[in-house]
């Protein structure tokens, strides 16, 4: 893409960079005309959209190479790498439906199943055996391996059936003897247990929760449309649940998360049948994404008909289980990308997401059972819009807002380029349905700009290394200090048509989370009737100070936040990164120039309303009489004393060197007395320079609590944990989940020391959650 961008004349770049929505037709036409006569552009399209040049297609030779590497690893006992090699082989292997008896893919599934069995991943092994049998039902080795897996799981009745099937399908006498020996072993195992020949059913059930009450979409001054409640809603209530209109996995998660549901991939991940890009957690997700349902051929049914009735019924149940019978209920989102072409693997995620939105709309338009919803709107817009792509824009994106005119010039240019490239790629897949002219290009530009500001990032919680806990092979220490070992990982981007209507606040009253790819929204506070429901688009009060939040929202979502957390002064924004006053008896805060520039006017406004709005916490850091004379960088907001911020920052940097050594020691669990002494000295330096409520001090207190816990000094660990919580309670709302996390840490120490205060801490945790 850089080659294309570099070749565009400077005049055309400026024209696009300075353009408004009204200019899009002209800018799109000009850039399209330039590319039409630019040979490198057509070479790029060939590389992206011509299956002959595809790097993402299937290759039996590449699969065989990965299989051989897997065999070598398996023979050495290197099962982890063998598992990876067999998975890569499955990813590359072409699915040869015409050769069911000697199917290469079925062989790879059994190779991987054998590894999974060696690794004691029995359920995963069972699923791979079933997949092999769905391809090749007469595969004796697959029935045999499935029987051994079922026996290991205690499913002796199924194991017996599997081995009977294996004996029938096995042609060699030596193979039959081996199966009979395994049957005897299973019978002995069964007789030595009280379970008998039974099948263990999965009794887990899920109960669907229905969102409470009705929400209304209203127009809010300076914010556009937003959502309000029609009645009082209590905290913790589910108020919204929604499937995405379109979703795309982020590139860095392609090998770790399912490309459809975005959940973590299991060890027996399932590849796409037509290309080598996606991996799925199950065949259900594979089918939903690509629409490829595995069909059992007629000759398979005739082979099963020859079996004894009870065994035949069992074989049918295995071969035509939930995976193979699952029919897709959705418009398949990967099918138009799944032709071995490269563009969906190369283009940015939001561009591929735009392609999925357009492909879905076209599929819905073509399918009569999906068209009912659109009939009335189509009748109206058909009189005014000749292009179906324009209709797609009007119908699908009318709930979303775009900020094209607020985009940076370079971003406008990139969006123009990607819109043209995307349309050409879709044209290769759908033909004339995707016309390429200035109108369609303009609409795709708008759709991509809408996606940038309206799509939601789907996240998953990921456990970090839980210091204080052992891994699965180790021992628990006397006190397992629960550190902040959970982080949010961005795994995908999605368009939720109703979800995009919830406005942002840096002090939100609702929380968004994801179950699979579904968006769920719950209240975190009491919301009165006609109260606004606002969630955080990322930054919140307490996590970042106001200037950083404003910069992030401006860059990512192209709006100037005017929520109460940003428009009114609050203690957290002042002290989060603040310095302390040089006067030890003064509790005032000292700010640098960047924070002062953001907070100055808000502080003045607050002080002018001092008699009306009392806030003791704020008063501890501000001059209650007249703050205007002290609102200067380096000067205390309370008494006006000056602090040299250059030397103070240098002292903080020096302290952080020793804190970094402490963190490294915690990671290695080799904490020396010298490391602890240096860290305590560094904490003193930080407290001598930073405000008492500075978040960095809270983090260092937490680090020391963790270190002392690992050393078995539980009272010291508890003291530092309480010191951390005391600071965080000033930065966050008392009911914030961050406080609850810290209380869980404190409770873990109190329980280890039989401290009676543990019950009070548990009560607070329950109240916060």
Keywords:
globular, SET domain-containing protein, alpha+beta, SET_dom, 8% strand, 3-stranded antiparallel β-sheet, 4-stranded mixed β-sheet, 769 residues, TPR_rpt, 32 helices
Describe this structure in words.
Residues 213-538 form the SET domain. It comes from Stylosanthes scabra. InterPro entries: SET_dom, SET_dom_sf, TPR-like_helical_dom_sf, TPR_rpt. This is SET domain-containing protein. The chain is an alpha+beta fold and 769 residues long. It contains 32 helices and 14 strands. Helix 3 (24-36) crosses helix 21, helix 27 (645-668) runs antiparallel to helix 28 (673-689) and helix 30 packs antiparallel against helix 31. Mean pLDDT is 84; it is low at 195-207, 323-328, 368-386 and 465-479.
Ordered list of secondary-structure elements with their pairings:
Blueprint: H1 2-7, H2 10-17, H3 24-36, H4 39-49, H5 60-75, H6 79-92, H7 104-118, H8 122-135, H9 140-152, H10 156-169, H11 173-191, E1 215-220, E2 224-229, E3 238-242, E4 246-249, E5 270-271, E6 279-280, H12 283-290, H13 298-305, H14 309-319, H15 322-325, H16 343-346, H17 349-366, H18 375-381, H19 388-396, H20 409-430, H21 438-454, E7 456-463, E8 486-495, E9 503-504, E10 510-515, E11 518-523, E12 532-535, H22 546-557, H23 564-567, H24 571-575, E13 579-580, E14 589-590, H25 593-608, H26 616-619, H27 645-668, H28 673-689, H29 695-710, H30 714-731, H31 737-752, H32 758-768
Parallel strand pairs: 9-12
Antiparallel strand pairs: 1-2, 2-12, 3-11, 4-8, 5-6, 7-8, 10-11, 13-14
Domain SET: 213-538
Protein name: SET domain-containing protein
Organism: Stylosanthes scabra
